[in-house]
Structures are given as structure tokens and as C-alpha cells.
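The data are quoted verbatim for completeness:
=====
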Amino acid sequence: MDRRDLDAATQSYENAAQVVRGGRSVIVFVEGTRSRDGSLLEFKKGAFVLVGTPIPTNGLTYDDRDALLARARGWFEEQQAGVDAVGSQA
């Protein structure tokens, strides 16, 4: 996806949404890239257009995307902390 081309990026998410509605799973890397050291980077907002379960979005509006982003990031941070804890015990 070319994030510099807003129309192309929007179309990519539209296509992915159709695939999800068709029952297929889609992986979205919400950071848009990888970090060199494995730490979490800033999340991109576009991916949250496709957010589904287990994070409920009922009643949320476009204006709630920052709160949703923060909630999802918190979930990822918790998961990373769990992985890091297991790794430090090895």
C-alpha cells in the first residue's frame, strides 16, 4: 500500500474490508512498518477502520478513533510484556 497516495491507500482498505466481510482473515500491521529493536512504534489510524472482535466498536464514531487506537495499543503492549516476561525467564 502506498501511504503517500491517499486514494490508493483508501482503496486498499476498502478491498480489505470486502475480504473481511467475505469471511477471510486479514492481518494489518498497525504500525505501518517494523522497528529495528522490536519495540512498538506509533500506530497508524487507517488500520482501525477494519477493527473487529475482540475489541467491541459498537457505538463508536469516527471521533472515537484515538481512544480505540489507545485501547488497541494497550492490548498490544500487554501482549508484548507477557512475551518479554517469558523470554526473560528462559
